[in-house]
Amino acid sequence: MDDHAGGPHRHLSRRSLIASGALAAGALGASAPAIGAAFGGSPARAAAGVTKKITIYAEQLPGNLFGYGLAPGQATVPGPVLEMYEGDTLEITLVNTTTQRLSIHPHGVDYSTDSDGSPFNASFNNPGETRTYVWRSHEMVAAAGRRYMPGSAGYWHYHDHAMGTDHGTGGVAKGLYGALIVRRRGDILPSKQFTAVFHDMMINNKMAPATPMFEANLGERVEWIAIGHGNLFHTFHLHAHRWADNRTGMLEGPSDPSLVVDNKDLNPGSSFGFQVLAGEGVGPGAWMYHCHVQTHSDGGMAGIFLVRNADGSMPPGAEEAIHRFQGHTHTHGS
Ligand SMILES: [Cu+2]
């Protein structure tokens, strides 16, 4: 992971100790005063990370949707997964190619008022305008009294905050949202990522059977990022897989007290993520993911997590299951 840090100038010694899970507790305890002294001030922390510059294009899409993309003509709903490591800065040049006022507003990271994406702070793009937003992040620091000030790491998200209303209600409704992951150095990286946004009665602005079918081969490490938007209460449920209800979704040792779940509240504005090995302990198959509010799953908030055989071939029964799902009648809130 250190190659991501961008060069030999980085203060790898103590920061690496903070990042490597097994060493973290002891190392932090032993060297707490030094860490506090070295990284206690925010300018020092900001200077230590790298700055990644990206350009995002906000575009109008067919079907009265809007999306964010990393290149012209590549906008999607949801937008691209944006990732950074704790301590790094993301400098986003947002190009508004549309005729609407819009912005990009992040959850979980640090920013100044002129990067918060809200019209209230005059932080938005007029139609056709290009504007830069700066998202900073910080690592965990040891504080007095055996406490730790949390770092920015987490499964967060970003969304419009200016289209339609001063809260971006119009932009969010039309697809201007996506996942933002801040990783701690040493975190395990997945081989696939799925973003599922539960929004009104839709998943990624689609209803079953048009909801996304997420695919992986047996044993692949897949990362789910679940995000809630809109006006309804949802619960995210994944069949045949489970995760720890903590930052990473993984137990960090035999005595990790995290609750293990396969269903979790997903209210508007909230987000979480986790990694699973596809089909671990249960085998390949067409597994369902859905909102567990019954009128919502019946109304179209359901999709398929297709776990193929390890060689990529279809497991027995999966084609039939997919056909049944696609022919499945969804009632609408009856
Ligand atoms: Cu729901």
UniProtKB/TrEMBL annotation:
Residue intervals of the Plastocyanin-like domain: 76-185, 200-310
What GO terms are given for molecular function? copper ion binding; oxidoreductase activity
Keywords, A to Z, come to: Copper, Metal-binding, Oxidoreductase
Q: Which PROSITE patterns match?
A: MULTICOPPER_OXIDASE2, TAT
Write out the coiled-coil annotation as residue ranges: none
> Does the record bear Cytoplasm in its keywords?
no
Recorded hits in Pfam families, A to Z, give: Cu-oxidase_2, Cu-oxidase_3
Q: Which InterPro entries match?
A: Cu-oxidase-like_N, Cu-oxidase_C, Cu-oxidase_fam, Cu_oxidase_Cu_BS, Cupredoxin, TAT_signal
Domain of life per record: Bacteria
Write the protein's name. Answer: Multicopper oxidase
